[in-house]
Amino acid sequence: MSFLQRLKGRGVRANQRLQSSEEETALDKIVQLDVDVFQSDNLIVVYAQAAGADLSEVHVSIEGDADIVLIEGKRLRPEYIAFPRKKVDGAFFTEECIWGDFYRRIILPESVDITSAEAKIKNGVLVLILPLLEPEEKEKVHLNIKQATPT
Questions:
Q1: How much is the pTM?
Q2: For the chain, which terminal residue's Cβ has fewer other Cβ atoms within 10 angstroms, N or C?
Q3: DSSP class of residue 27?
Q4: pLDDT value of residue 26
Q5: What's the rounded Cα separation, in Å, for the pair 58 and 97?
Q6: Element (H, E) at 49
Q7: Phi/psi of residue 79, nearest 5 degrees
Q8: CA–CA gap between residue 53 and residue 77 (Å, rounded)
Q9: 39 has pLDDT over 90
């Protein structure tokens, strides 16, 4: 079961006790990704702190009427850099970084052009560039006004 499925299940069972402590621990490890969202006249830019996330583990999708952005992924502590060949016994005396599964659902104020949307990552910051859809020009319709008859 993916962490997104577990997260969705959490909402369904908000008032119920979870079945297993293992499942409860897994749900507690899902964190909401911190974001900044900027809007100009013609685009929306989302900045998300994704330091430590492997690009193959980050997924971005646009849903709804092109007005909902989902960002999900996983950040792993890069222990392989400090200990490239073996596991070392020990314990953390300070643990402030947030590692593990992350998720963020952003409801945008306007629909975006999904064909021109871009996602880039640099220095651990995920940047989504989301051009706004041009307002559709609708044909003007004139209604004939009739005198209402009293009832």
A1: 0.68
A2: C
A3: H
A4: 54
A5: 18
A6: strand 43-49
A7: -65, -25
A8: 9
A9: yes
Enumerate residues 6+ apart whose C-beta is below 8 A from 125.
47, 48, 49, 50, 51
Tokens of 141: 């319709």
Q: Determine the 3-state secondary structure of 52 from DSSP.
A: coil
Locus of tokens 């300070």 = 94
Spatial strand order of the sheet with 43-49 comes to 35-39, 43-49, 125-131, 118-122
For residue 110, give the amino acid letter.
E
- CA–CA gap between residue 57 and residue 72 (Å, rounded): 8
Question: pLDDT higher for 80 or 113?
Answer: 113
Domains annotated for the chain, with CATH where assigned, are 32-131 (2.60.40.790)
Q: 124 Cβ partners below 8 Å, 6+ apart?
A: 49, 50, 51, 52, 53
Q: Is the four-CA dihedral 51, 54, 55, 57 of positive or negative sign?
A: negative
Distance CA(5)–CA(14), nearest Å, equals: 14
* Residue bearing tokens 């021109």: 116
